[in-house]
Fold this protein.
Amino acid sequence: MSRCTDWVPSLWMDTFEELLNEDNELDYGDQWTLNFNYDQTDKVTKEERKRGWKVYSHCAHANFQCGSCSKTWPSARVVVLFRYRLRGERGTVIMRPFGQACRSCQDDEFYLPGFAQKEVEHALHRLFSKVRKNCYNDEDDHDDKGSSTCSTKKHTKPHEASLCQACKMGICCQDED
């Protein structure tokens, strides 16, 4: 079984659209869009908060491939950051996946993760649950004290903070256990 190691934005976009349109995940009559920003952080300024922005950080499982030596590795601690808001009848989600560096090359280059379809669906279901709660005042139907698949305790190797882009920014999910 091959592991997806390529960052594929269209997988996220297509799954987002499918969950919205076919599964009616946010069936409130509003238009929602998904965009990517590879520089965003988890900080929301007072002004952004006034404009309705909220942040959700999700911990996921993904695979990586080094662009230099082609080594591949899995990680159960991959941070995906979502910033979202609803204004009028338009909802916006801005997403950022965080990368990891190769242990072999140690070149401080962060490579973006490759996700399985199931993992993308799980992350988006969790996001939509947060959106329903925070934008529509619905109950958080997935509020299971943990925002991530990291809580499944399937970690086989210790998390290497020095190779984690999210750790370097102080927003990694490694402290969620």
Remarks:
- The first strand starts at residue 31 and ends at 36.
- Residues 117-136 form the longest helix (20 residues).
